[in-house]
Amino acid sequence: MVLMVNDVDIAVNDEGFLRSLHDWNEDVAIAIAALHRLELTPAHWEIILFMREYYQSFKHLPNARVFTKAIAHQFGVEKGNSRYLHQLFPDGPLKYTCKIAGLPKPPTCL
């Protein structure tokens, strides 16, 4: 499958995750979010960019519980809770943060 962003073909798998982490940029993130009817706000970007840094630092993706705890540790409990994260990413905070951030699908996500 292919996602067209700024006249460039971006390879994605059958679930819409990027095939290559190197294809990611903010325009790609906006395009992926739009496919899921999400308009990215500064609050979204805060979580997306944090997850990219997390992945680059640890070379793996967390499960949902560790994801929420990491957000709480970085940004405080008012953001590191499932209610807040579901408001930003209603269809699944960890899965859609990773997808929009150009990261692999977390192994714990369906």
Overview of this protein structure:
The protein has 110 residues and is mainly alpha-helical. It has one domain. The protein is 49% helix and 7% strand. The chain is built from 5 helices and 2 strands. The chain has helices at residues 26-35, 42-58, 64-75, 82-88, 93-100; strands at 2-5, 8-11. A two-stranded antiparallel sheet has the order 1-2. The mean pLDDT is 94.
Q: DSSP strand (E) fraction? A: 5-15%
N-to-C order of helices and strands: EEHHHHH
Number of folding domains?
1
Question: What about the largest sheet?
Answer: 2 strands, antiparallel
What is the SS-derived class?
mainly alpha
Overall mean pLDDT score?
94
Count, helices: 5
Q: Distance N terminus to C terminus? A: 20 Å
Quick take:
This protein is mainly alpha-helical and 110 residues long.
What attributes characterize this protein structure?
two-stranded antiparallel sheet, mainly alpha
Describe how the helices and strands are arranged.
Layout: E1 2-5, E2 8-11, H1 26-35, H2 42-58, H3 64-75, H4 82-88, H5 93-100
